[in-house]
Amino acid sequence: MIYNFSAGPGVLPEPVLREVQAEFLSYKQGVSIVEMSHRSDAFATIVEQLEARLRRLMQIPDDYAVLFLQGGATLQFSMVPMNLRETRRFAYLDSGVWSKKAIADAKHFGDVVVVGSSAATKYRELPAWPQTISDVDYLHVTLNNTIEGTRYTELPDTDVPLVADVSSNILAEAIDVKRYGLLYAGAQKNIGPAGLTLVIIRRELIVDRQLPSYLAYSQHVDSLLNTPSTFSLYVAERVLAWVEDEGGVEAMERRNVEKSSLFYDALDASPLFHAVVSGTERSLTNIPFTTGDAGTDEAFQRFAEAHGLIELGGHRSVGGLRASLYNAMPLEGVKRLIEVMHEFEQEGQDVSYKNV
Ligand code: PMP
């Protein structure tokens, strides 16, 4: 049994992968899903169902549009400022490597005001929300910092539209959509394969801005502008059906709290490993941890791999170890990880692992 702790593309529900495999050669009309026109009735039904499921799962109000785009969350680092610019002043919270990249891209389109930063502490904690905020087009936040393992659980009271990157926590915990002007997420963690990006946007923020067609949100509302990543949309629809069958976002959050608490408790009690983030800011989905020694961290990674636990390396920008516990990671995977950590504490730190 292999357990995949990758931060993304991440683990998907096994029943969905089996279903996809079974239908791959012939989807409904005797052709493969990857051979079907995105304008066919069968495919249009998939897109409609995907949107309907997402709207139910996240309780997305009617005055929000749901867009299915490509280009990853990274393209949204540019599309957001391009489309939402009125005064061309944008506020950002600098809470991690991904928000830093979002800030860098936004600078191409206006003035970026960094209203809080935890760069000085290597993003081990979250910058506080600004006390007051005005005269900006929006305030951008990375709600869950995939690399650093921190997450916001409270939102400020503000009239400025909130824009959130929810790539690593969408559908993993409740997100109150109506508190935001715009939410975006790459699909490749909790939703499906890479190649699909979701944007949920309050319709009144969609303004025609004379942009190249693909880059304008207005071009993507309520219809497909061009050929989408059809396979990713199809798998995403099946994953969301699974989430609904399993009890929805509430059930996912309950499980994610259970899994992450178990893991944090094990880290807090361990004589060798410790969590990088402390207190209430700990992410439910991405948990960086370390022994404090790069060689021992690497030795553990190899030890874990030899025991079927893969992708436990920290992001290349920070090193250390990281376990991502997305919706499709079963509790058994976390229990197994803890068991293997105990084995390593007791017997695994021998020279043969350290020197490889
Ligand atoms: N934002 C966050 C929070 C992420 O975790 C990631 C990467 N997984 C990105 C943005 C970049 O996403 P993409 O690779 O889809 O562009």
Provide a concise account of the structure shown.
About 35% of the residues lie in helices and about 15% in strands. It is α/β, with parallel strands linked by helices and about 350 residues long. Strand 3 (about 90-95), helix 4 (about 95-105) and strand 4 form a beta-alpha-beta unit.
List keywords for this structure.
356 residues; 7-stranded mixed beta sheet; 16% strand; alpha/beta; Aspartate Aminotransferase, domain 2; binds 4'-deoxy-4'-aminopyridoxal-5'-phosphate
For this structure, the CATH topology of the largest domain is: Aspartate Aminotransferase, domain 2
Uncertain regions spanning at least 5 consecutive residues: none
| Largest sheet: spatial strand order | 2-10-9-8-5-3-4
Q: Give the name of the CATH architecture of the largest domain.
A: 3-Layer(aba) Sandwich
- Written as H for each helix and E for each strand, in order along the chain, the element string is EHHEHEHEEEEEEEHHEEHEEHH
Largest sheet: 7 strands, mixed
Structural class determined from secondary elements: alpha/beta
Task: List the total number of helices.
Answer: 9
Protein architecture, described:
The protein is an alpha/beta fold. The chain is built from nine helices and 14 strands. The protein has two domains: 3-8 and 248-354, Aspartate Aminotransferase, domain 1 (Alpha-Beta Complex); 14-245, Type I PLP-dependent aspartate aminotransferase-like (Major domain) (Aspartate Aminotransferase, domain 2), CATH 3.40.640.10. The protein has helices spanning 14-23, 41-58, 72-84, 97-106, 230-245, 248-269, 294-306, 331-348, 351-354, and strands spanning 3-4, 64-69, 89-94, 111-117, 139-142, 144-145, 150-151, 162-165, 182-186, 197-202, 274-275, 286-290, 309-310, 321-324. It has a seven-stranded mixed β-sheet, covered by helices on one side. A three-stranded antiparallel β-sheet has the order 11-12-14. A two-stranded parallel ribbon has the order 1-13. The longest helix is centred in the C-terminal third of the chain and has 22 residues, at 248-269. The relative contact order is 0.16. The structure holds 4'-deoxy-4'-aminopyridoxal-5'-phosphate. The site of 4'-deoxy-4'-aminopyridoxal-5'-phosphate has 11 residues, from helix 3.
